[in-house]
Amino acid sequence: MERIDQLWPGGYTFLFDDTLFRPSTDTFLLGGFVRTRRGDRICDLGAGTGLLGLLLLARQPELSVTGVEIQKAACDLARRSAELNGLTDRICVLQQDLRQRDALPRGFFDGVVANPPYFSADSGAVSPDPGRGIARSEISCTLADVCAAAGHLLHSGGRFSLVFRPGRMAELFVLLLQHRLEPKRLRFVQYRADAAPSLLLLECRKDGRAGLTVEPPLLLKDADGHDTPEINRIYFRDR
Q1: Least reliable range by pLDDT among 30-44, 128-142, 186-200, 224-238
Q2: Which of 31, 33, 2, 37 is nearest to 16 (CA)?
Q3: pLDDT tens digit string along 54-100?
Q4: Which of 16, 18, 82, 125 sits a CA distance of 20 to 30 A from 5?
Q5: Within a domain: residue 205?
Q6: Is residue 239 a part of any domain in this protein?
Q7: What distance in Å separates the CA atoms of residue 77 and residue 97, rounded to the nearest whole number?
Q8: Are the CB atoms for 67 and 53 separated by under 8 Å?
């Protein structure tokens, strides 16, 4: 079922569909982690219904965002969201398989962002729903495909930012380095201070020098079980 929501009262409106990738905490966390500058050209790989692009534009209005998404229904919703918000001059949505890298501009972007599929196709974690299965599992693309596309799209010095699961971190770092993407800034996400990390947020620099900064963990809940002030900021509850 198609639904509509706002980032905050009076803020950007976004469309989504229950049968496609629903808005998730992961997307909001990545939106709050990515660093952008005025005038940056950003590519969102596997853009889904375009929520991440809206999150970035809400914090830095003078971006241009290109969403690359394979599912037509998701592309249609992303384009309609751009129209609803008067952002058709800022958002371009391409229905494109990111594995077909020759169809994408080499070295054009200042930043690439992605919420790659977390699970391998043979992991047993594949959703029976086709839309969610593509979003969460390596059905239409693999982690290696996403890293290769990011390396192709970024100019030297450009940033690749992503959210992923810690259990595959070693594999992730190997793939990134194969495509000249040097991990530079890492932050783990924990439910509470005493919990193991459930996600990682990572920023890489194409052709960057070695040197990784590990930031303090991002906590979802405080000792009393309430959302932390940082989570409230990430969800625009301070507006």
Answers
A1: 128-142
A2: 2
A3: 999 999 999 999 999 999 999 999 999 999 999 999 999 999 999 99
A4: 125
A5: yes
A6: no
A7: 17
A8: yes
Mean pLDDT of 164-186: 97
Is 58 inside any structural domain? yes
pTM for this predicted structure? 0.92
CA distance 93 to 78: 7
SS3 content of the chain, % helix, strand, coil (to 5): 30, 30, 40
Q: Is the pLDDT of residue 21 over 50?
A: yes
Question: Reduced to 3 states, what is the DSSP secondary structure of residue 154?
Answer: strand
Q: Rounded to whole angstroms, how far apart are CA atoms 200 and 198? A: 7
Exposed, middle or buried by CB within 10 Å (0-12, 13-18, 19+), for 129? Answer: middle
Task: Please give the tally of structural domains in the chain.
Answer: 1
Contact 5, 233 (CB under 8 A): no
Residue 173's domain spans which residues? 2-234
Distance in angstroms (rounded) separating the CA atoms of residues 90 and 60 = 11
Over 90: is that where the pLDDT of 225 sits? Answer: yes
The arithmetic mean of pLDDT across residues 171-180, rounded, is 98
Instruction: Provide the residue count of the chain.
Output: 239
d(CA 168, CA 209): 23
In a domain, 83, yes or no: yes
What is the rounded distance in angstroms from the CA atom of residue 186 to the CA atom of residue 205? 12
CA separation for the pair 33, 69 (Å, rounded): 22
Structural contact between residues 190 and 197, judged by C-beta atoms closer than 8 angstroms? yes
135, amino acid identity: A
